Amino acid sequence: MTHETIRSSNARCFLTVLMLGGSVMCAASSALAVCAIAQYGEPKYSAGFKHFDYVNADAPRNGTLVLANPDRLTSFDKFNPFTLRGNPAPGLGLMFESLTTGSSDEAASAYCLLADDINVAPDGLSTTFHINPKARFSNGDPVTAEDVRYSFETLKSPQALPQFSVYFGQIARAVVVDRLTIRFEYKVATREMPLLAGSIPVFSRKWGVMPDGTHIPFDQLAFEKPVASGEFLIDRYDNGRTITYRRNPNYWGASLPVRVGTHNFARIDYRLYSDAVARLEAFKAGEYDVLVEHVVQNWVRRDIGKRFDTGELIKREFPHHNGVGMQGFFINLRRPIFQDVRVRQALDLAFDFEWLNRRLFYEQYKRINSFFVNTDLQAQGKPDKGELAILARLRKELDAAVFGEMPQQPDTDPPNSLRANLIRARGLLAQAGWTYRDGALRDAKGQPFVFELLDDSGGGTSMEPIAAAYGRNLQKLGIRMNFRTLDYALIQKRIDAFDFDVTTVRLPDVQVPGTEQVSRFASAYADQQGSDNIAGVKSPAIDAILKKVVSAQTREQLVDATHALDRVLMNGYYVIPHWYSPVHRVAYRNTLAYPATLPLYYDAEEWILSTWWQKPSASSR
Fold first, then answer.
1. pLDDT 10s digits, 569-586
2. Does domain 12-230+247-263 fall into CATH 3.40.190.10?
3. DSSP class of 599
């Protein structure tokens, strides 16, 4: 388990990259103009722009980039990232494109990719996209409106991950107007809908078609290579442990402004290591090119050695402006022992972040105290006028604490102390019917308070030392926490089936909240296996606030709704929050280079993959 990048699904990071929200501004200099889509206001880049500011348009396009596991998966068994069953190969995002793509120096924007023109209906209830006539799939076939509709309908079907039916649930239908024109019609008119439609990944109807004309069901596609429009093709793979992508020499979109200066390597090679220790030692031995370090202990004490001393390997910290998202111990409310909010708050009080930061983290981390840390969407203090207008209508369904100061995470720095926090926790537990007797904390029936913290067997980056410290604190309350490790693939299956007590999850960050929040917290998805509502949140008040988030027509409305959502979620104590870092820590081979201008909002792995390059003087592998 890494200390910073923890994924809640084998495809949720892929989905998050696709999700954008916005209204539309088209600069029409011709019948088919380059269009930009932004959440609020106008996009940064106007029609006719040459490339994004954070790329090097003159970067050489050659060489091979060798990477290790980008997440906790140590093997893969399919090339389809859109289905629930199985583990997808890393790097599949290189093969799929959508009608629009985003900019990394804006909070929420998108620019035409497969599409070359967008027309939003005056009433906001539909958006029409015209597809670039040059757009081609990897097999040479043109991308058509029929393919876009097929992709949309497939992803909304039961054969695909349930998240898609949530994200695209307000899109009523896709209508083929003509061969290169498709219109998406919506159930509701929100500023998010045009970009939701534009973010749908597009693949050919021929993916999965056998030589005899039969079609493999979408949810049964395994090692059938995708027929998609991205810049890369699968070159070779071996035993679910390695995979190599090569640039498609016939890729259609290399000269598009959104593609200039990107994907500069001719080949991308992934090597999957069995655990974090093997992965780190392989990097130090020169087996791959870049290590994004998520464990500060490694960064300080283990990312060292001869190759670092000689300058062959370089360490850098890159600042970012990302919203942090939420990482923490997610509590499964489907378990009876966790249904009382006072119990969940007591568990939070027993977590001593300050001790961990001093003893294990070298004072490198900050505590997460919001679902929207590092943004202006984080609720603070008491509710302001805008929040109160939303919360007041739900007063009967909300705890009175919601209308007070925003909850702060327990602190053990003097004059505060762990002892004071545990005394407070004991009082909350007693109020909830849990008392200490016969050597354990017990309920009215005499049953002891015991739960399991589930983590993956991540070798040198496991949560074991954190869990051990937390477990000692819980023992002082009479609570026994059993720490259990499993292979990540097995843990993911248990999370998808909601078969856990407490587990560590990181919800990917978003700069502009939207439909993904519905998937994470709406009551309708609490019992839908495979959904993002991991904690099992069921709250009519949260459901009502989520509608406000999705339907916000101005930035001010979005901020008010998100503040209200954050305040109610934090008062629900569904998660014991962890920590975050305001920088990306990257170690890399000195043969690589990166643009002088950093993006504002970026995932380190994706940034390296899309904008770095190999120096001309470097020898090819």
1. 999 999 999 999 989 999
2. yes
3. P
